[in-house]
Specification:
alpha/beta, about 40% helix, Arc Repressor Mutant, subunit A, about 220 residues, Rossmann fold
Length: about 220
């Protein structure tokens, strides 16, 4: 049965998702729900070409697009073209802070949805209208759950990112412009926050990397 939004006019929506099966399913589901799906794209390059032709009012996009341009950079490019466009991130990143490399990367207004929390299409449909309402003001990400990762600071997450890249303490200390001893102490505090017990038989840097991938919504091998 097709749902009709009689009260609120349906904005033009563009979907950008590199998982083609999910892209098709989401487009069909939202269309059945009464949303105006004006365009779909499986990568940033196609999205940019379609954007100028379609001029959508809302863009729903993943952050990891498997392209040279990720969803965050794409959102910023689109907002430079149209400052009032509504942005809905639909992503696997558990904590939005793992998605944004720095505060400078954050678009002026956005809605943040986690794929693992979406249990019906209405949640995405509602986010579209919310994005339109927030199109002229900054809309912060919804609060994260009170799990162990809520204790992590921005510096902790940056530290995890460098460790996941295989960087040594010496290199990390140089990047963060701190002493090596301070870096070692920061890692020790990080291990406690991540609830990783001291164990000489286990490579703790590997466990930190696994936690980082887990919180980034990536598959842990």
């Amino acid at each position: 049965m097709k749902h009709i939004n009689a009260v609120r006019p349906t904005p033009r929506v563009m979907l950008v998702e590199n998982d083609r099966a999910l892209l098709t399913m989401l487009a069909n589901s939202l269309a059945q729900f009464g949303q105006n799906i004006a365009a779909i794209a499986s990568n940033a390059s196609d999205a940019l070409k379609l954007f100028s032709k379609i001029n959508p009012e809302v863009v729903i996009l993943d952050i990891d697009l498997g392209d040279s341009i990720d969803g965050i950079e794409l959102a910023n490019i689109l907002q430079r073209s149209n400052p009032n466009i509504g942005i809905v991130f639909l992503t696997s990143f558990t904590d939005h802070r793992f998605a944004f490399i720095s505060k400078r990367d954050i678009p002026k207004n956005y809605i943040y949805l986690r794929k693992q929390e979406i249990n019906n299409v209405k949640m995405v449909s509602d986010a579209i209208f919310e994005a339109v309402a927030n199109s002229k003001k900054y809309s912060p990400a919804r609060p994260i759950e009170k799990n162990y990762y809520s204790k992590l600071s921005d510096r902790d997450i940056e530290l995890m990112r460098h460790i996941s890249k295989g960087y040594s303490n010496v290199k990390i200390a140089k990047i963060l412009k701190i002493e090596i001893k301070s870096c070692e102490n920061a890692i020790s505090r990080l291990l406690k926050k991540l609830e990783i017990p001291p164990d000489k038989e286990v490579n703790q840097r590997v466990l930190i990397t696994q936690k980082y991938f887990e919180l980034s919504g990536k598959e842990v091998i």
